[in-house]
Amino acid sequence: MKGEKIDCIDSGTKFCPCHLAEAGECILCSQLHGECFCDCLNWKGVCIYQGWIANGEKAKEGRKTYTCNILEAELYEKDLLYIKFSLPEDLSLDLMNPGSYIFLRTDENFYFDVPISIMDCNIDDNTASILIEVRGIKTKRLLNAKANDPLVIRGPYWNGIFGLKNIKNTVNSNCLILARGIGVAPMIPVIKALQKQNNNLNIIIDRAPYKEVYVDDLLSSLNLTYTEANLLETGKLTDKCKTIIRDSIEKDNVNLIHCGGADILTFNVMNFLDNIKADAVSLSCCNNSKMCCGEGVCGSCTARFAGHVVKRLCKVQSDPRNIFEGRRFI
């Protein structure tokens, strides 16, 4: 993690400065982190401290809550729910980029909203679609959702993907997309961004644990094809997956690998790249941190790293290698 470059996903946006600045815990601004001198970790072209002073030394207004209309709701499998819903125009523009997600619920109790990545956002008709893996109490509450029901959402949030800078900087290159399970949903905005930047995409999908690849139509609409392969077996990369990665680097000169799936997929891909001395290959991956408030305040997303470093992963944007290397799991 030497020379690590970190960023705050909200820095320079209409939501900055936030409640972390009020508490003296700003991720980037040294003066809003208890220091008496100016030494920003990552200059974004906007002075956070000046914004703090101009706003009366208080946080700016946070994300708004919107009541939207469900257009389609379909239970693909017993634990996989698809929802398409309408959006206000300004919100649809904010949810187009890779890493966009929202908190949503179907009832009045705001304690039960759940973070879900945007799978597809259409700014022409102001709609968005999501895939929900039904696992716990919060997501089970969404099973009763049906067309024309109200859907309460809070957003926009943008830190659903680590390595956004790597995605932005990859132009006219070859990219490898590895996606497994529910990771195919946040993969779609990443693919759209890379495609717009004139990149060639090799998409490998592991449908496990599901019966079908439910993004087939979306990929077809983008004139893209994919190959199915088993990527993980008993928590390790399969020989097939290793061969795909090695060939992509040696034969196709891949510059970026995106991992859409659980952390164990990303962690194993990182280790394999280290083993074959492919450190030059850029990475992006899903942010699978537990989230509750989305503002870095509640502490659900915090992770501890070597040197007693604590990162609020709903806010901190960094390279995946910096997120997984030096991380303490106990």
From TrEMBL:
Gene3D superfamilies: Translation factors. InterPro entries: 2Fe2S_fd_BS, FNR_nucleotide-bd, PyrK_electron_transfer, Riboflavin_synthase-like_b-brl. It comes from the Bacteria. GO terms for molecular function: 2 iron, 2 sulfur cluster binding. This is Uncharacterized protein. It comes from Clostridium intestinale URNW.
